Amino acid sequence: MCFLRRPGASAGWIWWRMLRQVIHRGLQSFFYKLGLFVSRHPVFFLTVPAVLTIIFGFSLLNRFQPDTDLESLVAPSHSLAKIERSLASSLFSLDQSKSQLYSDLHTPGRYGRVILLSKPGGNILHQADVILQIHRAVLEMKVNYKGYNYTFSHLCVLRNQDKKCVLDDIISVLEDLRQAALSNKTTARVQVSYPNTKLKDGRSSFIGHQLGGVMEVPNSKDQRVKSARAIQITYYLQTYGSVTQDLIGEKWESEFCKLMHKMQLDHQDLQLYSLASFSLWKDFHQTSLLARGKILVSLMLILLTATLSSSMKDCLRSKPFLGLLGVLTICISSVTAAGIFFITDGKYNSTLLGIPFFAMGHGTKGVFELLSGWRRTRENLPFKDRVADAYSDVMVSYTMTSSLYFIAFGMGASPFTNIEAVKVFCQNMCVSILLNYFYIFSFFGSCLVFAGQLEQNRYHSIFCCKIPSAEYLDRKPVWFQTMMNDGHHHTSHHETNPYQHHFIQHFLREHYNEWITNIYVKPFVVILYLIYASFSFMGCLQINDGANIINLLASESPSVSYALIQQKYFSNYSPVIGFYIYEPLEYWNGTVQEDLKTLSQGFNTVSWIEQYYQYLRVGNISATNKSDFISILQSSFLKKPEFQHFKNDIIFSKAGDENNIIASRLYLVARTSENTQREAVELLEKLRPLSLIQTIKFIVFNPTFVFMDHYGLSVTMPVLISGFGILLVLILTFFLVIHPLGNFWLILSVTSIELGVLGLMTLWNVDMDCISILCLIYTLNFAIDHCAPLLYTFVLATEHTRTQCIKNSLQEHGTAILQNVSSFLIGLVPLLFVPSNLTFTLFKCLLLAGSCTLLHCFVILPVFLTFFPPSKKHHKKKKRAKRKEREEIECIEIQENPDHVTAV
User: Fold this and answer.
1) CB atoms < 10 A from the CB of 51, how many?
2) Which of 283, 351, 622, 824 would be a feasible disulfide site paired with 553, CB 3.0-4.6 Å?
3) Ranges 125-139, 562-576, 629-643, 721-735: which has the least confidence
4) CB 322 within 8 A of CB 400
5) Is this prediction's pTM over 0.90?
6) CA-to-CA distance for 453 and 459, rounded, in angstroms?
7) String of b and e for 692-711 (b: at least 16 CB within 10 Å)?
8) Among residues 114, 118, 122, which one has the least CA distance to residue 170?
């Protein structure tokens, strides 16, 4: 191996260049030998993957198990909210607090919830009798378990003071309204205020989440209700932690939903929307059931596209079955990966629907590149050598891109990832990438060997029969000549490569390459890129986190319908925030009272402290010291019927004869708009820092916070880590690849595509949830997969001009890129017809990933590479020097042999 020193080049540069070439040629030599080994043992490499698929495929069928714990999947695994939940539960039982700690869709434990909606213009309060009939039907509903009948009274959460079932206070309001109607009183005589109303027993109750679509009486000081559109009632079930209790509760919930459906048929003047604790998981899993048929249609479309794009008019060199077998190779490798996942006790969830599409997008790229590599080999070589040459040409870049896939998803599966669904997906994707790589060089490589053997022996690529001679074909009809045409009529002595007749390659060579490099087209491409960059940047400034769980549910499911109605009529107030004071506090101190008032300022409070202070003021009672404060609280205030329920909010301790308040709680509710989730996060971020700087030691908690706490950071961390990992690898290999500028251009291209997909998906109303984040990780690799071969071929090209270099790069790799991206995008179309928010997000993100990659490979890069480095002038100088040297040799020969000028 000889290296010529370029003028002005340092010794270090020469050594780096030598090292790069040694590494590259060493890899090429290794894959050449691998290709020879596969071509000499094709049956072995065909059989082993097939046997593995059969073994692990049966385990897939036997060990399939869905994951039913939605919180562990989509909520941040490590969050302060979970620690706060443990601390709050240690002070006050959360099971007993479920009715006070109202949350929209994230209520813990088992429950049944129903929204009753009146017709437009109607008043739901006028239908109190009908609602109470439905309520009684729920209380009397029976579920049978092992011969015993259970009703709501057997399963409900009990109040501590009287051991009766915990029911929403709106039931008491409705009973008062019905009694007023039966006694010929007008409903106006029964005053209902909003959001706080006075009950018959004297208690003040917050009904902001139980009464919706409220219109108040104009100029009413006590906020009296004129009319309301909706009522929400929740039936809370006890959770003991036993399996039997859980099974009975699940049956009760199922019967509750059936009863609500029956009641809807009986009461056409009301609209009923029901929800149970299992509804979210059921509707999350429903996506998989709805998508099964569409995924099969998608597979058929990919098979058809791959088969057609691999075909030629030349019946000898056409490879339709190789395109078909390439897609099947990815399918069986995905089945094997799924089998391994379930053998290792993995549980299925609907986010894993994206894995077949992710694996197909990367795997078919290797298939089409190997097919293009086969077309670039010399036909006069034996088929085994041609397979080895194809491996040597293609597998180096495919190994690099597969490694980057593994690094990116491996970083996503690391402990830094805080969303379990993302971690499980990335782990499964890593296994799929490894198996894809193995199956392509083994199973598909064996298929390529057999196809090459058929071509060498001149067998028809479809019918597998011997192709007749040209003389025999000339005597046959035109249709027979068309079917048996092996390209001998089209091949001339100027065309050394018969594969140039492939329709995609012909289109790129004869039409597209000339058009895209036309000087008059380039300004429009620059303008197009500026528009693309502007919209991408605008979208990146409007990113929203996708903490709303309905983004992962089937779009026409009961949970989504319920959530939309709930958001429309019950979003005036935030979820009820529990405010837990976990250290002894001088409640009688005026300064402490002011601090508590400051902390609760702007909130609607449900507080024993506020009620107690008012009780003292009304009674003109002085309690300025500890003994008086606690004595009056225990002996007088908490004995009143209207205040007895506050006993559950205070923890007393006794040291000798002295009583102390060691912990207490109150509830805060904020006025919100329809975007309740975002405002709840803002409330959490506002209150939590105050707990660190205030003298009052407190925590705030609502079950919703477990799903929202730092969700934006948790969900974006995987793509940041993966992007950093890929960037680090590309920088570290900057001087170990064939040309540093190749890595530089690759980093710029991938960044442009990634930001483009991120910005455009935001403009397309896609939030940053676990699905969109996985798609962004995939976009990094998908862009590298398609841009890297194109860019490295360009920087290594030795033509006179950049324009000619980019033409050759497109001609060499454009066919495989177009085949793969078109198959990928066509395979996404059936996802559009799956009625699920999860698949809509998957479709939008992957469509943008494929489209932006295609735009860069065929429009943006071919134009921009003609403007910027690397320069090709030194190649032109070398060729001029060689031409000049040849001319000098010719002149010398002429001078020595003047009689043989013509021969020279």
Assistant:
1) 9
2) 283
3) 721-735
4) no
5) no
6) 9
7) eeeebebbbbbbbbbbbbbb
8) 114
Distance in Å from the first CA to the final CA of the chain:
32
Burial of 689 (0-12, 13-18, 19+ CB in 10 A): exposed
Q: How far is residue 876 CA from its own chain's centroid?
A: 49
111 DSSP assignment: E
The token pair at 547 is 């903490």
Q: CA–CA separation, 699 vs 577, rounded Å?
A: 10
Pairing of strands 111-118, 604-606: unpaired
Average pLDDT over residues 700-724: 79
Answer whether 14's CB lies under 8 Å from 5's CB. Answer: yes
Give the single-character DSSP code of 476: S
**Res. 498 pLDDT band, cuts 50 70 90:** low
Peptide bond into 703 cis (omega under 30): no
Can you state the percent helix, strand and coil of the chain, rounding each to 5? 65, 10, 25
C-alpha 769/C-alpha 74 separation (Å) is: 9
Ramachandran assignment for 92, one of left (phi > 0), alpha (psi -120 to 50 degrees), beta (any other)? beta
Q: What type of residue sits at position 647?
A: K
Question: 571 vs 193, 556, 670, 676, CA distance in Å?
Answer: 17, 21, 10, 6
Give the separation between CA 247 and CA 686, rounded to whole angstroms: 40
Tokens of 437: 């790589």
Check if the beta carbon of residue 220 is closer than 8 Å to that of residue 137. no
Nearest-angstrom CA–CA distance, 101 and 668: 10
DSSP character string of 198-264: E-TTS-EEE-TTTEES-EEPTT-TT-BEEE-SEEEEEEEB---S-HHHHHHHHHHHHHHHHHHHHHH
The answer to whether the beta carbons of residues 682 and 709 sit under 8 Å apart is no
* Reported confidence tier of residue 1, pLDDT bands at 50, 70, 90: very low
Retrieve residue 351's tokens: 């986010």
3-state per-residue secondary structure call for 580-591: EECCCCCCCCHH
Residues 6+ apart with CB under 8 A from 312: 318, 319, 487, 499, 501, 502, 503
Q: CB neighbours (10 Å) of residue 891? A: 11
Other C-beta atoms closer than 10 Å to the C-beta of 318 total: 22
Which whole-number Å values give the CA distances from 877 to 3, 251, 718, 805, 881, in the listed order? 18, 83, 48, 16, 6
Distance, in Å, from the CA atom of 410 to the CA atom of 430, rounded to the nearest integer, reads 6
Whether 800 and 876 have beta carbons less than 8 Å apart is answered as yes
Taking only the tens place, the pLDDT of each residue in 215-271 is 988 887 778 888 899 999 999 998 776 788 889 999 999 999 999 999 999 988 899
Dihedral over Cα of 91, 92, 93, 95: its sign: negative
Helix axes 320-343, 445-456, angle to 10 degrees: 160
Q: What mean pLDDT do residues 510-529 have?
A: 91
Residue with tokens 């027993």: 201
Q: What's the mean pLDDT in 787-795?
A: 87
CA distances from 167 to 135, 241, 273 (A): 10, 22, 19
Q: What is the rounded distance in angstroms from the CA atom of residue 882 to the CA atom of residue 798?
A: 14
Q: CA neighbours within 13 Å on the CB side: how many for 632? A: 18
Q: DSSP secondary structure string, 125-180?
A: GGGHHHHHHHHHHHHH--EEETTEEE-HHHHBPBPTTT-PBP--THHHHHHHHHHH
Yes or no: say if 228 and 115 are a contact pair by the CB < 8 Å rule.
Answer: no
Task: Pull the structure tokens for residue 425.
Answer: 């997906």
- Which is it for the CA torsion 447, 449, 452, 454, positive or negative? negative
